[in-house]
């Protein structure tokens, strides 16, 4: 397993990534998944979102029922 070095940069903790883990852009997304911290390249456009939507089951929204608006007196 490859190990990365931690250091302080100003008031933030930073990670020095080895060459084989470098990113192409100037920003990454960061989030926690359980006890892991995940860095991933930030997508340049919405194609990633469209791929996620496309991978969802076709019947995912079949249980939603949109009721017609209620008739109200005085409105």
Automatic annotation (TrEMBL):
<dbReference type="Pfam" id="PF04014">
    <property type="entry name" value="MazE_antitoxin"/>
</dbReference>
<feature type="domain" description="SpoVT-AbrB">
    <location>
        <begin position="4"/>
        <end position="44"/>
    </location>
</feature>
<comment type="similarity">
    <text>Belongs to the VapB family.</text>
</comment>
<protein>
    <submittedName>
        <fullName>Antitoxin VapB1</fullName>
    </submittedName>
</protein>
<dbReference type="InterPro" id="IPR037914">
    <property type="entry name" value="SpoVT-AbrB_sf"/>
</dbReference>
<keyword id="KW-0238">DNA-binding</keyword>
<dbReference type="GO" id="GO:0003677">
    <property type="term" value="F:DNA binding"/>
</dbReference>
<dbReference type="InterPro" id="IPR007159">
    <property type="entry name" value="SpoVT-AbrB_dom"/>
</dbReference>
<dbReference type="InterPro" id="IPR051734">
    <property type="entry name" value="VapB_TA_antitoxins"/>
</dbReference>
